[in-house]
Amino acid sequence: MSETAKRLMEQRANTWNQAMELLDRAAAESRDLNAEENTAFDAMNKDIDALDARAKSILEAEQRSADMAASFEKIYDRPRTAGISTPAEDRNADRLRAFARGEVRDFTITPEYRDILKSGSGANVVPTGFYGQLWEYAVEEAAILTPGYVTQLNTDGGEALTIPKVTVHPTSSAATEGSAMTESDPTFANGSLTVAKAGFVTQISREMIDDAGVDLLGYLARAAGRELGNTIGANAVSVLLAGTTAAVTGPTGVSGAFGVQSTAGVGFDKLIDLYHSVIEPYRRRSGCAWVMSDPTAAAVRKIKSADGVYVWQPSVIPGAPDTILSKPVLIDTNVPDVALNAESVVFGDLGSLYVRIAGGVRFERSDEFAFTSDLVTFRAVVRHGALHVDPNATKSYVGAAS
To answer: How far apart are CA 286 and CA 126, in angstroms?
Structure first.
């Protein structure tokens, strides 16, 4: 870890402690935060998130630099013998450069993968090359797509994909010697994972393309990744919520929130109930996590147990998520905010949610579409879908009706 990233994490920890001091002071005086303290607390929360994002960005930039150096080393060290093809990632890079220059009009990038070691989740696969840049920006907009949680599928075609599942397992019963055992068969079911098309068109002036100082590829990645990521993520969260069983209802009189931990059954107890509404085998899985929006996270950060322990535990590792009851928290803007009747917190094994990308991310270019305006038209298209296969794997918290 770089010194800069370490300093940012230390600053994050200091800000976290200041926020907790505000809450502790109000609790010691048996009162809620006043307006000024609430404003300060919200500002500290934003600073905490911003510092974490900056530290993560620095580490990712260091990793990209190392990967680029390794790629160039491979390129220049590899013998240029006739008939030897370049690796897939080199071909993608060559196609992308030709695409930006207008030498080709379209191409499809299929994700390449490499194994990495990531703290807390073991060996994961992450996309590399330009597709990886797109997915990186998509994750910034939709945390549900963070690698290591939902089941992500990349397929060549967009035909309906059958996902088999077991809905009832066989059970055993006592059997006496010499007697026939009771038959118990598993029950199987199938889910169909289909895809829908999403995309957008943007136009860029010829002057911008010809200006060597403009990061055209970076612009395309940000615009396409964020917009398509929003669409994919919003659909994935919608499918997740539709397939999740509501298990815990909030207390009345707190506008759908959790209440203060002064008596049993409110505050921290509600999150404990939600945690244990998911059975232990699901909680053991690597994809088990909490999912909530940022406003809901701000409310949860203020909750502590009757003995004064805060439910929210900040991460000390750059880029690693904070935790509740030792399980990671994903902040996703597509989840409803805490409110009356709102399904605002989901907990459980997110691996039960399948998110599919069919045919990769497709880019197309036209120099003729806006010929009279001297504009170059770019189109980004993705075919995606989501399917939740196990309603027992995830449970949700729903605000009270009043």
So the answer is: 16
Examine the domain organization and report whether 10 and 133 are in the same domain: no
| pLDDT of 93 | 54
pLDDT for the residue numbered 135:
64
- Report the distance separating Cα 320 and Cα 56, nearest Å: 8
| Three-point CA angle 274, 276, 278, nearest 5° | 85
Ranges of beta strands (E only) in 27-158 are 106-109, 112-118, 122-128, 151-155
Report CA dihedral (99, 103, 107, 111) to the nearest 10 degrees: -50
CA angle 129–71–97, rounded 5-degree value: 50
Residue with tokens 């980004």: 380
Q: Do 342 and 274 share a structural domain? A: yes
Structural domain ending residue among the three candidates 34, 58, 84: 84
Regarding whether 220 and 111 lie in a shared domain, the answer is yes
Helical segments of 78-87, H only: none
Residues 6+ apart with CB under 8 A from 196: 235, 383, 384, 385
- Cβ atoms 315, 321 nearer than 8 A: yes
Considering the domain architecture, whether residues 228 and 298 belong to the same structural domain is answered as: yes
Q: What is the mean pLDDT of residues 212-216?
A: 64
Specify whether 80 is located in the same domain as 118. Answer: no
Q: Can you tell me the distance from the alpha carbon of 352 to that of 233, in angstroms, rounded to the nearest whole number?
A: 15
Q: What residues have CB less than 8 Å from 117, skipping those under 6 apart? A: 123
Q: Which of 13, 27, 75, 111 has the alpha carbon at shortest distance from 303?
A: 27
345-373 pLDDT tens trace: 999 999 999 999 998 877 777 888 888 99
Instruction: Find the domain containing 59 and state its range.
Output: 1-84
Candidates 160, 137, 98; CA nearest to 356 is 160
In which residue are the tokens 């659909």 written?
A: 235
Q: What share of the chain is helix, strand, coil (3-state, %, to 5)?
A: 40, 30, 30
Q: Do residues 295 and 216 share a domain?
A: yes
Q: Which of 34, 51, 84 is the last residue of a domain?
A: 84
Does 179 map to a domain? no
Start-to-end C-alpha separation, the chain: 48
Same domain, residue pair 321 and 387: yes
In angstroms, the Cα distances linking 322 to 4, 326, 330 are 20, 9, 8
Q: Please give the tally of structural domains in the chain.
A: 2
Nearest to 331 by CA among 108, 142, 205: 142
